[in-house]
Structure formats: structure tokens, C-alpha cells
Write a structure and sequence with these properties.
single chain, alpha/beta, 5-stranded mixed β-sheet, 5 helices, 5 strands
Length: 147
């Protein structure tokens, strides 16, 4: 039997969100939140569109998932995000008590794992580098066109 609900499957869905951000001229970061194999939230960066520095893909996804579940806690949920969360998003993840975070590309400058790896809730599991190359390519392309 083939398991369709793998980390790769959900990261591909997050990459679709990153492409939406790219098309809008936003930094191409996408996120999805899954719960029991169902995507309950899809989001991408909206900082330029909303003129809001906190409108990261993860923050948008946390809000959408909480609204869907009618609960501020995201237990039994997994966040898939194409870029390593910043400290703000990792801090927000702590408060949601999300069960797992899976990210693609590492953020060497602003990612939380370099200096704040203990910021996640003790219940939260972390998977790093899923589809890392694919997630990095869209970011590199975006920034090469900006320069």
C-alpha cells in the first residue's frame, strides 16, 4: 500500500503556496497545516500585501488552522513550511502547542535553530531539510531577480 500522506506530499503543497507568494512579489514562503491527513490551513507570506511585518506564512497558517478547529491549540497538527521559521514564528508555534514542525530550506541568517533551538514547546517535534533543494531554489530565484 502506498502512503500518500508523507512529509514530501505536504511539503509539495506548501511549495504551491510559496509559488503564490512569488507571483505576488512576496518572499516565496509557503505553509500548510495538516491534521489527521487533512490540510486544514494553507498560507503564504503576505507582508507586502498587508503592509504587516508579522504576516509570515506560518502566522497566517496558525490563524487559519485555529479558526478551522475552533481552538487556539494545534495539538495533533503538523506545520509544513518551505523555509525555517524565524524566532517570531517559532515563538508563536510554542503558544499553539503544535505537535510537529517540518521545514524545507534552512535560513542561515534568521532561522530559529541557530540560536533559539529550545524555543519550541516541549511537545513539538521538529523535522529539518525536507525537500530542502526545491524549497531553496524558489527563494534563490526570487532574490536573484530582486538584485
Amino acid at each position: 500500500m502506498i502512503d500518500l500522506y508523507t512529509d514530501t506530499f505536504f511539503m509539495r503543497e506548501a511549495l504551491k503556496e510559496a509559488q503564490k507568494a512569488y507571483d505576488l512579489g512576496e518572499v516565496p514562503v509557503g505553509a500548510v497545516i495538516e491534521c489527521n491527513h487533512l490540510i486544514i490551513a494553507r498560507a503564504h507570506n503576505l507582508t507586502e500585501q498587508l503592509t504587516d511585518v508579522t504576516a509570515h506564512a506560518e502566522m497566517q497558517a496558525f490563524t487559519a488552522a485555529s479558526n478551522y478547529l475552533g481552538n487556539k491549540y494545534l495539538e495533533n497538527c503538523t506545520l509544513y513550511v518551505t523555509l525555517e521559521p524565524c524566532i517570531m514564528c517559532a515563538g508563536a508555534a510554542y503558544w499553539t502547542q503544535i505537535s510537529k514542525i517540518v521545514f524545507g530550506a534552512f535560513d542561515e541568517k534568521r532561522g530559529f535553530t541557530k540560536t533559539h533551538s529550545g524555543i519550541l514547546h516541549p511537545k513539538t517535534k521538529l523535522e529539518k531539510g525536507i525537500m530542502e533543494n526545491e524549497c531553496a531554489i524558489i527563494l534563490k530565484e526570487f532574490f536573484s531577480k530582486k538584485r
